[in-house]
Amino acid sequence: MTSDENAFPEPSGPHGGHHALEIAKAHGVETMFTLSGAHVFPMYDAAVKSDDPMPIIDVRHEPSAVFAAEAIGKLTRTPGLAVLTAGPGVTNGVSPVAQAYFSGSPLVVVGGRAPAATWGAGTLQELDHPPIFETITKSARTAGRLAQIAPVVDQAFTDAGSSHRGPAFVDIPMDEFFNSGPIEHRSTGGAMTPVEPDGDRITQIAALLARAERPVIILGSDVWSDHAEEAARRFVEEAGVPAIANGMGRGVLPGGHELLVTKARSRALGTCDLAVVVGTPLDFRLGFGRFGGKDGAPAATTVHIADSPGQVSTHAELGASVAGDLTQVFDGLLAALQAQPAKPDWTVWASDLQAQVAAAVERDAALLGAEADPIHPARIYGELLPRLADDAVVIGDGGDFVSFAGKFVEPKRPGGWLDPGPYGCLGAGLGAAMAARIARPDSQVVVLFGDGAAGMSLIDVDTLVRHNLPVVMVVGNNSAWGLEKSPMQMLYGYDVAADLAPQTRYDQVVTALGGGGEMVTDPREIGPALDRAFASGIPYLVNVMTDVNAQYPRATMGV
Q: Which PROSITE patterns does the annotation name (predicted)?
């Protein structure tokens, strides 16, 4: 018998692909994202031949498969599944896995691996993957034998779906993947035990709130991920505390809500006396946890609330903190606040911030309706916003252009906003679009591209076309890496490696791949072009030429 015959023995039960797939199904996985590779053929065979076949979305570049699976995790709050072939297939997934790690996205990546029987002999694409992933996953393991596949994959899904959520990686030797035998390990699925918050710590935070004159609460992505959006809205409304949305916390309070003061962010965070940050790290997006100190106000007290103890900040000076199931935290905090001797009254503070919001809306109106030539990027949002349905999913993939989206787009419902999160990884847009179209089949799906980011994944329009996944894409095309061009000019008086080819026809790329598209140079034509895109029923790209000098007015470079 040859070594090849030894590697693939006669079947004696379900092969390793079935062992892994049955576990994934038990954890709620409904779609597999991949790029074809022989090391993982058993996963495909299991998906096709299962009694309940699983759809396979095959992409043109592995990062898109992982970005798609990560976005499934974000949107459904159930771990997404990406399957990558060995060696470069796996390493192509490193940046998306890192994004999932920093975003707290539930994700499982199953990788192929060179055969165990010939390990160390220099087999094709032989690489020990888990050490590469150890610092950017909750767990990274090899299921070295057929009998280990089901329990190791089961643990990966449990790790990924437990607070604090994140990615998990498993690779499986090719010969063991093709091997067959009975499935001896079954999974009961992804029901996780909530982390019980400390009641005394909640009472301490309630006391700080009761004494505060100018509190603000920041609602981060984990409020959504931890299924706490209803409790969060209930707390904000009944307590009457002004709120700012961050990441997937957007939409927890619908755009236009009287207590949503994101448009008064600078005033709120700069002059508050208490900042309660929930479900997001105290990183560069939040001044590393330092609030207050502006316009004569003293430094504020910072409270950090997280879904698990390991997420509580260790670098910021905290007045209090608590970790645990965020629904329990919000409900416990509301009860403790209402039990205080005197109910705090923040109407004057809230009114001040509401006035700031109204002023910002008035200022924004001029930009949203700008007739400038070249087109101001804000005008795109002026045309897009009134065309978005309440349940639309908006995806940001870019630098400067997407910063404007963060300023203007306020979702009406939770779970309607996707961005790269704190890792800032470009190229995630089309993978996220695939996931959004699958997870929300009846909703509008809109991808907002900077022209730099568009170049990283646009080939996967082919995937959208082949799998009949219509989405609307909008490119803010200023022919530059805008997020780098202006800072370099500020630092050095010149810029280099920041320009792209002028007026690149990304719309024609999409048309060539089987979708539709058009270029827009007149601001009055943006709206009609968007109407055609939404009505097309195919992947459609609106390529808008914008003014490279219309930079987003940012206060931080992220360092």
A: TPP_ENZYMES
Q: Which range is least confidently modeled, 190-204, 271-285, 299-313, 408-422?
A: 190-204
The burial class, CB within 10 Å (0-12 / 13-18 / 19+), for 559 is exposed
Q: How far is CA 255 from CA 243, 249, 472, 546, in A?
A: 12, 12, 22, 26
H helical segments located in 261-387? 265-271, 326-338, 347-368, 377-384
Q: Where are the domains of the chain?
A: 16-178, 199-354, 370-545
* Domain covering 16-178 assigned CATH 3.40.50.970 in the classification: yes
- Spell 302-336 as b/e; 16+ CB within 10 A means b: bbbbbbbeebbbeebebebbbbbbbbbbbbbbbeb
CA distance 519 to 69: 31
Closest CA to 113 of 139, 135, 145: 145
CATH number of 199-354: 3.40.50.1220
**pLDDT for residue 142 is more than 90:** yes
Whether the Cβ atoms of residue 77 and residue 106 lie closer than 8 Å to each other: yes
Note whether 199-354 and 370-545 share their fold: yes
CA pair distance 150, 158, nearest whole angstrom = 12
Q: What is the pLDDT of residue 2?
A: 44
Q: What distance in Å separates the CA atoms of residue 16 and residue 122, rounded to the nearest whole number? A: 23
The length of the chain, given as a count of residues? 559
The rounded Cα 390 to chain-centroid distance in angstroms is 19
* CA–CA dist 365, 358 (Å, integer): 11
Using the predicted structure, report yes or no on whether residue 558 has a pLDDT greater than 80: no
SS (H, E, C) 380-434: HHHHHHHHCCCCCEEEEECCHHHHHHHHHCCCCCCCCEECCHHHCCCCCHHHHHH
Residue 77 binned pLDDT confidence (cut-offs 50, 70, 90): very high
- Residue 45 to residues 20, 21, 212, 331, Cα–Cα distance (Å): 12, 10, 60, 47
Dist. CA 152–CA 235, nearest whole Å: 39
In 3-state terms the chain splits into helix, strand, coil percentages (rounded to 5) of 45, 15, 40
Our CA dihedral for 203, 302, 251, 267, rounded to 10 degrees, sits at 130
| CATH class of the domain at 370-545 | alpha beta
- Helices 41-49 and 16-26 cross at an angle (nearest 10°) of 60
Q: Could you read off the pLDDT of 406-426 as tens digits, one per residue?
A: 999 999 999 999 999 999 899
Confidence band for 12, pLDDT divided at 50, 70 and 90: confident
Band the pLDDT of 552: cuts 50, 70, 90. Answer: confident
Closest CA to 459 of 517, 509, 398, 395: 509
d(CA 403, CA 397): 10
**pTM for the complete prediction?**
0.94
The confidence band for 342, taking pLDDT boundaries of 50, 70 and 90, is confident
Alpha carbon of residue 559 to chain centroid:
21
H helix or E strand, kind and range, residue 112: strand 107-113
